[in-house]
Fold this protein.
Amino acid sequence: MIANDLPAQTASSGDAPLLDAYSDAVSHAVAEAHAAVVHIEVGAASNGGSGSGFFISPDGYLLTNSHVVHAGGGLRVSLGDGRRLEADLVGDDPASDLAVLRVSADGLAHLTLADSDQVRLGQIAIAIGSPMGFQQTVTAGIVSGLGRSLRGASGRLIDSVIQTDAALNPGNSGGPLVNSRAEVIGVNTAIIRPAQGICFAIASNTARWVAAWLIKEGRIRRSFIGVAGQTVPVARKLVHHHRLAIGTGVRVAGIEPGSPASRAGLLENDVLLALEGADTPSVDALHKLLTGDRIGVRALVSFLRGAELRRHAIIPQEMPEGR
């Protein structure tokens, strides 16, 4: 019996270096990131809400979810070093479920936003936050899905969402999802309650763009063309035939009646390639182009309809507040 047990013991000990390497990667990332993560309290302690957030600059700007702070009321943040500071709302964007706060402090530990386009399935994903009010809680898992869409509180789809199996609970909202280098790959935002191990984070590239506009103007004035889109590959023969600069585009999955896209003659299954000469290789790229300065301004949209390359004129409209 002892002899039969030896191979199992040997295999187990052989796994130890691998487990140690994983533990070391997680521990190192947490040690680098945790000082920049805060607990956020909203309103009165008796009936207010709470969530998580993290500093993105040394002078007090921090990111969190819009739904954490949208109800308003006094905002207070508890730092990892024990300080408790009042915070001001700099900007709130329900359409992306992101908000920026600021505290009056300098020299703060802060996190770097990674390039979420480089995130890969199966890579380590570490969530830090305050689930159920337990501050500086860490969970780890992997990136289990990419390119998901999630409907935000405003009713608008948030695209390019990262799916993870790192356990999240109420209170994790607004906290960072980091890689093994302690770089933020996403902002934790949602949990599917009946499911096990399915959680979502807003991609860091989306968060970077939203945060920049919120800091600059306090809100995001968007234009829209009225399509629901999905990032898809373009057949290689079409890329070569039309000498396209990109190998992916945005497939039109749906069109709002009476929208700019409808008036421009776009149809479902058209694949958008560019807006006014700027490539649209992804839904995220298209959204970034639909800024406030395009409202009411005629533009050319390039797209594939089957194998045919077409260009139509389109006039984006202003997206209504709260959408």
Remarks:
- The CA atoms of residues 171 and 286 lie 31 Å apart.
- The longest strand covers residues 137-151.
- The mean pLDDT is 88.
- The chain has two domains: 1-216, 223-318.
